[in-house]
Design goal:
The complex is a heterodimer.
Chain A (H helix, E strand, L loop, with lengths): L1 E5 L3 H13 L3 E5 L2 H10 L4 E5 L7 H11 L5 E5 L4 H9 L4 E4 L4 H18 L5 E3 L2 E4 L4 E4 L2 E2 L4 H12 L4 E3 H11 L8 H11 L5 E6 L3 E6 L3
Parallel strand pairs in A: 1-2, 1-3, 3-4, 4-5
Antiparallel strand pairs in A: 6-7, 7-8, 8-9, 10-12, 11-12
Helix pairs in contact in A: 2-3, 6-8
Chain B lengths: L1 H10 L10 H50 E4 L2 E4 L3 H9 L5 E7 L3 E5 L18 E6 L8 E11 L6 E10 L1 H48 L16 H55 L3 H30 L1 H6 L3 E4 H18 L3 E6 L7 E4 L1 H19 L4 E9 L2 E8 L29 H11 L3 E6 L5 E8 L4
Parallel strand pairs in B: 9-11
Antiparallel strand pairs in B: 1-2, 3-4, 3-7, 5-6, 6-7, 8-10, 11-12, 12-14, 13-14
Helix pairs in contact in B: 2-4, 5-6, 6-10, 8-9, 9-10
């Protein structure tokens, strides 16, 4: 997994590249905007992590230029600035996510992985393994301990949504929305019923669907 | 008019306590001298009319006394009085304006007329042929009637043995006083009306003149303590303009210094963020590596460094939020319609993973039946306020606790509640925790700014924040903001 880190603060860049390497990424560090732009345009990366306050060419400009050339490349923006205006500017310029300094490394890693998951999901993506659960979007097949599990279209979409947004809350509105878009299955049944069925089918997978009071559901690793 | 008078009365000294008022000053200076002058004028007019009335009466009495004297003819050493009955009747005819007369030869020899006439003031050597005038009262028989008397001394008899004769003619003073009173009344009444009109005009004039001051006062009084925008006084007189200008200069200076300070805090916080991120990342990394290589002592040290870095980072973020929430910068930030139900729902969902890490069951409840709890506000600041409430609940309630965020409309307000079943805050400490850097507990790694930030943001939005105990245990924080009509 190739990652470009554009950060001018050497101490932060050093720590981040070490942590990211440990987490399994192949990290390239760019100390300024010009280098970052050059590398992102000329080489292949799976994801870019950009500081907005870069010397020579500022982060927003790099972001816009790279976005124009490579619309599918996931980009995460780091900044010491915050505020809604900055956030909107960053997202308008093409950032996929936004993180304000200082942050916890696990937070950064989670965001990077979520972005990668999303980009792979959108691009078809290969078979993925979550604990003992195998999930293959291309083949539209889910397996538990290698044995296939039967999933109705709605159950499939529900599991897909929960997996894509793993460790984050999936609201009932989001679930209803995903079902309405596909409209592939007739018949009714409340979300609770489908969650109940899915829970039964995921027993022994190492994944648990937690109920978040008043909001929705959250898929996390751990027995439940 | 009645009300206006009332207001004037209230401005008079002694009626309203407190410092001096320009209005009162001017009114006193203009009206009091006027009143004194009016009284003096009335007194003077009365005296003048009385004098002229006396003069007229005295002239008549003088003529009458001389005429009477002519009727008294000396014969040798005696007196012959030729006073026809008809003339007597004419003189004494008018019952309202009685005329009395007396002829005598002093000392005290009564000859003719009404002997009850008051005696003239004693004169040592009276000038003959020159009438004296005096006021006096008739005797008991005439009910003590007030009279004006002319006394004329004449001499008669032989040239070698002259004798003095006194002729007195009196007239009741009633007519004279009536005349004076009428004249006084005729002049004083129009004068009083003029005075009353003048007072009203003066009062209205002062009011009109001081109106720009009152307007300026309203402008200054009506503004929030954070509003440092210049005063705008249009069409104000020169003097008030100068005052407003002086105030505006001061406001501008205060504004400059306050915003300079804010900018500094904000810049400093921004500048601190990158090194703090570096520090945090480095210690995180060191912690990971230490677990493999170094002993537990070093690991504990590193853990503390990391905690300290995390706290500093949190503090910097909170300070920045506070700087943003402060009136000066909050006023500059755009406001829009914010649906609190949506915002709080999104935020709660965002915080669920962190809450689960802390072993806390975070949930959301909404009252779907009430009107949409939308407010007019700055979404970013409101977000910070709610985030701080959730963050506080997670920080201080402890593992295994449950935290619930509730949103609903309550009368004219929208209310966000964050309730936990943690240790709570003692009632005595509930006011203090809204102060900056005040903390109710030494547990947790908070910096003591959370509730101060919430309070600041609530106040920026015309709302308030309160704490109450939850049953059976725990704390409920209520953030109430004025609701925007749908």
């Amino acid at each position: 997994m190739k990652l470009l880190l554009a950060e001018d603060d050497l101490i932060l860049a050093d720590a981040l590249s070490a942590s990211l390497s440990k987490a399994g990424f192949e990290v390239e560090v760019a100390p300024n905007g010009a280098v970052a732009e050059f590398l992102l345009l000329k080489q292949h990366f799976d994801i870019g992590v950009l500081d907005l306050g870069l010397p020579m060419v500022d982060g927003l400009t790099v972001l816009k230029r790279v976005r124009a050339a490579k619309p599918a490349l996931p980009m995460l923006v780091l900044t010491a600035l915050d505020g809604l205006e900055h956030r909107v500017a960053g997202l308008n310029a093409g950032a996929d996510d936004y993180l304000t300094k200082p942050f916890d490394f696990p937070e950064l890693e989670a965001r990077i992985r979520a972005l990668l998951r999303r980009s792979r999901g959108a691009g078809g993506g290969a078979a993925q393994q979550f604990g003992k659960l195998g999930f293959d979007r291309d083949a539209r097949r889910a397996t538990l301990h290698g044995a296939p599990i039967e999933l109705s279209p709605r159950e499939w979409m529900l599991l897909d949504l929960l997996l894509t947004q793993r460790d984050r809350v999936v609201t009932k509105d989001q679930i209803a929305e995903s079902w309405a878009v596909e409209r592939s299955e007739s018949g009714s049944g409340s979300i609770e019923v489908y969650i109940h069925r899915l829970r039964r089918k995921l027993e022994g997978s190492g994944l648990a669907i937690r109920t978040v009071r008043g909001l929705g559901y959250l898929l996390e690793e751990g027995e439940g | 008019m009645h009300e206006a008078l009332h207001r004037v009365l209230h401005r008079l000294p002694g009626v309203t306590p407190g410092g001096s008022s320009l209005h009162r000053h001017l009114l006193l200076w203009l009206l009091l001298p006027q009143l004194v002058l009016w009284l003096a004028g009335a007194f003077f007019t009365y005296n003048l009319t009385a004098r002229y009335a006396n003069q007229a009466i005295d002239a008549a009495l003088s003529t009458a006394s001389r005429a009477l004297a002519r009727q008294v003819k000396p014969i040798g050493n005696g007196l012959f009085i030729d006073f026809p009955r008809a003339a007597q009747d004419i003189i004494e005819a008018d019952p309202d304006d009685r005329v009395y007369y007396m002829v005598s030869t002093p000392p005290g020899q009564f000859i003719l007329g009404n002997h009850r006439l008051p005696a003239p003031p004693p004169i040592d050597a009276p000038v003959l042929g020159q009438p004296y005038f005096y006021d006096g009262a008739m005797g008991e028989a005439d009910a003590g009637l007030q009279v004006r008397v002319a006394a004329l001394y004449l001499s008669y008899g032989e040239a070698d043995t002259p004798q003095t004769m006194l002729v007195q003619v009196a007239r009741s003073r009633a007519s004279r006083e009536q005349l004076a009173r009428r004249i006084l009344f005729d002049t004083a009444l129009p004068l009083s009306v003029v005075i009353a009109l003048m007072s009203m005009i003066v009062w209205a004039g002062i009011r009109a003149g001081l109106a720009p001051l009152a307007r300026m006062r309203a402008l200054v009084e009506g503004r929030a303590p954070n509003d440092l925008a210049p005063l705008e006084l249009e069409s104000a007189p020169r003097e008030v303009h100068a005052l407003a200008k002086a105030i505006n200069t001061l406001l501008a200076e205060v504004h400059e210094s306050v915003s300079g300070q804010r900018r500094f805090i904000s810049d400093a916080a921004h500048q601190l963020r990158t090194p703090l991120a570096g520090l945090k990342s480095q210690t995180e990394l060191a912690l990971n590596e230490a677990s493999e290589a170094a002993g537990p002592a070093l690991r504990t040290r590193l853990q503390r460094v990391h905690e300290s870095a995390t706290r500093s980072a949190h503090l910097v973020n909170q300070l920045l939020t506070l700087a943003r929430a402060e009136p000066e910068s909050a006023a500059a930030q755009a406001k829009s319609r914010v649906d609190l139900r949506r915002l709080a729902g999104e935020l709660t969902a965002e915080w669920v993973p962190r809450a689960r890490q802390a072993g806390i069951d975070l949930g959301f409840e909404e009252d779907g039946t009430s009107p949409t709890p939308a407010v007019q506000g700055n979404a970013l600041l409101l977000r910070e306020a709610i985030a701080n409430l959730i963050d506080n609940a997670i920080r201080y309630t402890g593992r295994g606790a449950s935290v619930t965020v509730r949103v609903r409309s309550l009368g004219p307000d929208a209310q966000i509640e964050v309730e936990d079943d943690g240790p709570g805050i003692a009632p005595a400490d509930r006011e203090r925790v809204f102060e900056r850097f005040a903390r109710a507990t030494l547990q947790g790694d908070g910096c003591g700014l959370g509730l101060a930030i919430v309070k600041e943001i609530a106040e920026r939005h015309g709302g308030r924040v309160a704490l109450e105990g939850a049953a059976p245990r725990g704390l409920r924080v209520l953030l109430r903001l004025p609701r925007l009509a749908a």
